[in-house]
Amino acid sequence: MNYQTISWQVLPNPLRPDEKTIGVITLNRPDFLNAVDVRMRVELDILLDEIRHQSHVRVIIVTGAGRGFSAGGDLKSEAGPLGAGEEDFDMGNFGPYKELAHYFFNDLRHSVLQRCFRKLEDLEAITIAAINGPAVGIGLELCTLCDLRFASDRAKLGEVAVPAGFLPESGGARNLPKLVGVGKALELILTGKIIDAAEAERIGLVERVIPHEKLMEEAMTFAAQVAANPYLSVRYAKQLVKHYWNTNRTEEGWGRELDAIKEITRTKDCQEGIRAFLGKRKAEYRGPYYDNSPF
Questions:
Q1: Per residue in 173-194, pLDDT tens?
Q2: Quick one: which of 76, 68, 82, 84 has its CA closest to 37?
């Protein structure tokens, strides 16, 4: 596939230059702070299938192009199908099925996101998030799906889904409490609080804070050490750690996340959240009573 919103490289191990064993996935929409739009979701889904069959890749670094890691979901592309964009928005000539088609394609975008994020979490190679700037919402969830998180000293992290009218939909509600504890996770999720790299390290959200200019260099140095270790030892070590880590990961849990986000994206509160974000104003939530309030 001709990737337009991501890039993929397999680089030589600096400790073993003859061995190309370190992969780098770069989220590549720098003009939009690498917000995850529909195409990026599809491209990631396809790329992760390709990587799954490349057994020579031992470590994968995920980072963002430009000044940030990822601003999360692309609300501009999400607004139209949810009725929060232009009134005459139409994906195509669906006639009387127009509204149904919008719901269908909205559901599909969330299904694809969950599918590709599950594939990332299930990769046998060691995964490192090199957080080179803001990582919020889906961007933060992507980081929590990686095995390790190295942050630039310029990084900002936050789970902003709930204040924006959504919710953590791709493992964030499961992984964030394990990393920082239930209380701190709920604080971050319910308030949308943005924290800096130093605070993220203090609470256990990231493993290291690295000077911005040296982030990829140090990530590569660590990746080189891991990739030079015995192949099966590394794979089985990750497999066993993940086995215990994922004791609360179930098909029911994934299903609940997907069902919840599908229901939420049909609400007027979600529309209000998108409009407020795009209009750079404070949201005025009134759900579930917009039209027939009992008060």
A1: 999 999 999 999 999 999 999 9
A2: 76
Work out the angle at residue 156's Cα, subtended by the Cα atoms of residues 188 and 6, and round it to the nearest 5 degrees.
Answer: 110
If one counts every other C-beta atom within 10 angstroms of the C-beta of residue 184, the result is: 17
Residue with tokens 């215990």: 244
80: Cβ contacts below 8 Å, ≥ 6 apart: 86, 89, 91, 102
For residue 188, CA distances in Å to 147, 152, 180, 200, 262 come to 20, 20, 10, 11, 22
Q: Under 8 Å CB-to-CB from 134, ≥6 apart: which residues? A: 33, 68, 69, 70, 71, 155, 156, 157
pTM (predicted TM-score): 0.92
Lookup result for tokens 């190679």: 125
- CA 260 to CA 61: how far, in whole Å? 30
Judge contact between 4 and 47, C-beta under 8 A.
no
Q: Does domain 6-279 have CATH number 3.90.226.10?
A: yes
d(CA 66, CA 26): 10
The domain locations on the chain are 6-279
Residue 276: its H or E element:
helix 268-279
Burial class, 227, CB count within 10 angstroms (exposed 0-12 / middle 13-18 / buried 19+) = buried
Give the model confidence (pLDDT) of 220-250 as tens digits.
Answer: 999 999 999 999 999 999 999 999 999 989 9
Return d(Cα 33, Cα 138) in angstroms, integer: 12
Q: Which of 201, 223, 189, 243 is nearest to 23 (CA)?
A: 223
Q: Which residues contact 228 (CB under 8 A, 6 or more apart)?
A: 13, 15, 16
Residues in Cβ contact with 224 at an 8 Å cutoff, skipping those fewer than 6 apart: 13, 14, 15, 16, 22
